Amino acid sequence: MKSYWMQMTDTGTVLELRDTPRPEPGARQLLVRMRAASLNRGEFVIGHGLHGAAGSWKAIGGEGAGEVVAVGAEVTGFKAGDRVMGRCSGAFSEYALMEMDEAIHMPETLSFEQGASVPMTFLVAFDMLVLQGRLQPGEWLLVNGVSSGVGVASLQLGKVLGARVIGTSGSADKLELMKGLGLDVGIQTRAPDFAARVMEVTEKHGADLVVNAVGGTVFAENIRAMAFQGRLATVGYVDGVVRAEIDLDALHAKRLTLFGVSNKLRTRAQRAAAVPRFVAEVMPHIAAGRIRPQIDKVMPLAQLPQAKALMEAGGHAGKIVLRMD
To answer: Are 223 and 144 in contact (CB under 8 A)?
Structure first.
């Protein structure tokens, strides 16, 4: 079968499309004929830790959708022929293994490309907004980089939870597109200069929950934009800035909560723990069309290098998906 592998060096990445044996499912695994898989920026970020030690090779791709071909001896709830989506290792392949606890039945209303765009970003958004962020109806949600994959998922999930959403982006066109997905207020900027506008539109209340998918350059500005008892989720650092000063006076006086969202150090059981609640609380919205994965571009598997370059150029809004023809 065809499978993409990546070697991470100290300065960049090397991609290689290989012919490899088709894997066999373990006791609690599904063998899935992959039909689509989507890109996630974190997998390609130097030093992120998802790809192993520098110089090593790893089969890549973190989420996808397809049809079950075979199941392990202890698998329940899934059978050959089922349409599934989920987080899985080696998703940029013609076949991949998916853990039973991570697999999700795909609604008939979703295409494989849409299904491949859900598991990673929407589970991350669920972690930020619900499990840790405790977002309530009527609260203000601020999303830095709202047109990114995680940004779009946070916007859509925030709206079905009843929040009012403010989003930042450097592109007026992207902000206009996001308004079609429910964005209440768009702020066109790539600079840390949005706190005053947030305070203006919230009538000096501030953002109850902030999703920082940009990084250290906007961290201090997010603190300034936060409401009393606000929560700040740090989920990425596309700006490459991983350090920032903390205003301890604001942290103390406003009783702020700061938390990170990452699967880097979590065990397999910890990663899978949220899936049942996600299926119960979010999948009905997806099945009914109240949440529709935003796909920017679909490309064939062989064009992963071009898809990666497109993602890193930042010209997309939503997810870039590979199709396995």
So the answer is: no
From CA 179, how far away is CA 152, in angstroms rounded? 11
Q: Identify the CATH number of the domain in which residue 37 sits.
A: 3.90.180.10
pLDDT > 70 in the chain, percent: 97
Helix H or strand E segment including 219: helix 219-225
Q: Which residues pair with 281 in a beta bridge?
A: none
Same domain, residue pair 162 and 221: yes
Q: Give per-residue pLDDT as tens, 6-40.
A: 997 777 789 999 999 999 999 999 999 999 999 99
DSSP 93: B
Domain end call among 260, 278, 293: 260
Q: Give the chain's largest Cα–Cα span.
A: 60
**Which tens digits make up the pLDDT trace of 260-273?**
999 889 999 999 99
Kind and range of the H or E run holding 208: strand 207-212
Domain count, the chain: 2
> Which tokens is 21 given?
């044996």
Q: Examine the domain organization and report whether 9 and 83 are in the same domain.
A: yes
